Amino acid sequence: MKFMKLGTKADTFYTEQATRTLISEIAADLVIQINDITYLLHKFPLLPKCGLLQRLCYDSSDSESVSLELHDIPGGEEAFELCAKFCYGIAINISAHNFVSALCAAKFLRMNDSIEKGNFVGKLESFFNSCILEGWKDSIATLQTTATLPEWSENLGIVRKCIDSIIEKILTPPPQVKWSYTYTRPGYTKKQHHSVPKDWWTEDVSDLDIDLFRCIIMAIRSTYVLPPQLIGEALHVYACRWLPGITKLKSSGSSVSQTEESKEKNRKILETIVSMIPADRGSVSVGFLFRLLSISIHLGVSSVTKTELIRRASLQFEEATVSDLLYPSTSSSDQNYYDTELVQAVLETFLKLWKRMSPGAVDSSYFLRSIRNVGKLIDSYLQVVARDDNMQVSKFVSLAETVPSIAREDHDDLYQAINIYLKMHPELSKADKKRLCGILDCQRLSPEVRGHAVKNELLPLRTVVQLLYFEQDKGSKATSSHKLPKPHEILMGAKDRAATTRDTQSKHSLGPAKDEFNGEEIRERDQQKTKRSDGKLALNLEKKMVIRGDIAETQSEKGRVVRDESSSSGKVNMDPKKMIRRARSKSEHGVKK
Fold it and tell me: Which residues form the NPH3 domain (predicted)?
């Protein structure tokens, strides 16, 4: 940064208790009180350069000591001392950090060229125009210090000139940027990158107060020179610079002082950032929107801001990754680590927009891909939150059920999420297990996943029976494709067998040995068909268990059927659990085939 050195004399000011004076053989005749500091000075070097002091000391004689109070001088005692040292010819350094206070104090004391040629105000204004406004970081630093004296800076035109200088440099094409700037992105080194990045200005601008930052961003947007993504990147950098992280928010939530002092400031920053996000889709990432949304819940921002964030996040929801959704809950009443309600709110808004737009869409395949991506995203998210020990079944099921059927091509990922939840929550009640597994559609599982689920001891019995039924039903359909008889064909075949038996018996006394061979062949086919009907009977029993859902009634039903079967064809195993194990072994045997 540039600086201006004025004066050549050594600094002889010193402090004695609450008094500031300087080493001199001449007695002080000008006493100036500023706040709690008393200055013992001399009229002869100050009055010729300060129009205000001339007017205040007009009625006093040269030999008379004068006492003045200048409590309202801008910049306080530090700024006044710079002006006093300039009058004494003591060496001082003016830079972007003390320029604003020095100029405001000099203007207050009327140290203009009209009072004396080459006065302090003229030198400061010359330094401002030729050095500060020409530099990048000098303009930023000067604008930053105007926050201490906003009214004076605004009236003197310092704010407007600094903002114009900054905007002019931001709109400069990157190849023409010759000044120093701050750029600390991970993996970026200026030695390896000779070209200037497009967002070179974002970090330096993020040092400004939110109101000044807003003035610059809105002025840049009004020019329509920079793309919306670059504006969004500047907002992202500023948010990372000023807004606290979620973990820090949750850990400091118990601090009353922090809550009262910082919440209002952070709330203003967040609401201002949201109001500046360009309307163009993709101007900011969906991960950034979720971060703002999560912070907004803790800060208690206005409902308008929160609704806008949910809407913007839902528009880009299909672009999100699981890591974009993994924000801890900031609610004191919510024991869950992850904030699933936030994700569900965005999902519901996405579905509303999707249903509104998809019916009249020209490219329906795009909307199908869109909702399929979201469905896969939610199932992957469920697999992560299922590991939360405090995750309630109701919240897990509610989020899973919000996803429409069309959004899932299959239920493999959903099964994985349910399986993880069951492993992490072994104490789950039967009712909760039934509710959890009720969202699973066994028909939409792949053969590999269905084979794993059949052997999963964590699943409730009802779900296992469903899986076995659909597994065997699929096997029977595959067998029927090889022209095996259907149930009604078996019934017709029984009638044919009865007629054939009568013909065989009538021909037995007259016919040759060939008819006897044909009779043996028919009996073998009858036995095979009887075995198939037995397998069909077991399948029907399991189907009854699925429909009724009552294990006790199912066992009695099986016992009744077994007794009927036993009276006609011999002994049958009456234990339903053994029947399920036998069906499982058959299912595994079928899968291996």
Answer: 199-474
